[in-house]
Amino acid sequence: MEKYKLPNLPYGYKDLEPHISEEIMRFHHDKHHAAYVNNLNATIEKHPELFEKNPEELLINLDEIPEDIKSAVRNNGGGVVNHSLFWRTMAPNGGGEPRGKIAEAIRKQFGNFNQFKEKFNNKGLEHFGSGWVWLVKNNKNELEIISTPNQDNPISKGKKPLILNDLWEHAYYLQYKNRKADYLEAWWNVINWEEIEKRFNN
């Protein structure tokens, strides 16, 4: 059975500067994301037949995971999937406002882009402790802003992730210290709307 591997970043460690520093990207990808991959592999070795599923499938079918590893799969599988999505949600020449169908859907649901952005940032600021803030498509095909604790992923609840931002302190503290609001605002300068449009349309 083939084990899970740490995916490469789709850009260089420095490429999101000045908004996200090279130091953060090296720690975040090479240490934190790598640890989730290693821990997930160690967890699944107890039930090696599960290596036939990819990490997303593990999270979608959490109820079918053996009880002795369910919590570890939820935490480490979530860390693997969330970070893999997160890197692709950002791009060196990102930022600006969305276009295409995702832009129409945001206007329909939230009034305009600035109102959406404010609600998204506020949801991130309100979230207590570690976790993520998301824009998801729910089972009614509507857009919804939610936050999840720790490494929980909305796919476990039948929701489709479109946008996510990491609220764990390791995502920003080396650069922004306790200025979480500044981090949340700066992050919009690297958002990859092309990738998000693809997710929305798939």
Could you explain how this protein is built, in words?
This protein has 202 residues and is mainly alpha-helical. It has helices at 22-44, 55-60, 67-88, 100-110, 113-126, 173-176, 180-187, 193-201; strands at 131-137, 143-149, 160-166. Strands 2-1-3 form a three-stranded antiparallel β-sheet, with helices on both faces. The longest helix is centred in the first third of the chain and has 23 residues, at 22-44. 32% of the residues are buried.
Structural class, from secondary structure content? mainly alpha
User: In order across it, which strands form the biggest sheet?
Assistant: 2-1-3
Roughly what is the average pLDDT, rounded to an integer?
A: 97
- Write down the CATH class of the largest domain: Alpha Beta
Report the biggest beta sheet as strand number plus sense, adding barrel if it closes.
3 strands, antiparallel
Helix content: 40-55%
Rg estimate, integer Å:
17 Å
**CATH H level, superfamily name of the largest domain:** Iron/manganese superoxide dismutase, C-terminal domain
Q: Which SSEs are present, and which pair or pack?
A:
Elements: H1 22-44, H2 55-60, H3 67-88, H4 100-110, H5 113-126, E1 131-137, E2 143-149, E3 160-166, H6 173-176, H7 180-187, H8 193-201
Antiparallel strand pairs: 1-2, 1-3
Task: Give a quick precis of the structure.
By secondary structure, the chain is mainly α.
Summary tags:
minor pseudopilin epsh fold; mainly alpha; Helix Hairpins; 2 domains; 202 residues; 3 strands; globular; 3-stranded antiparallel beta sheet; 8 helices; single chain
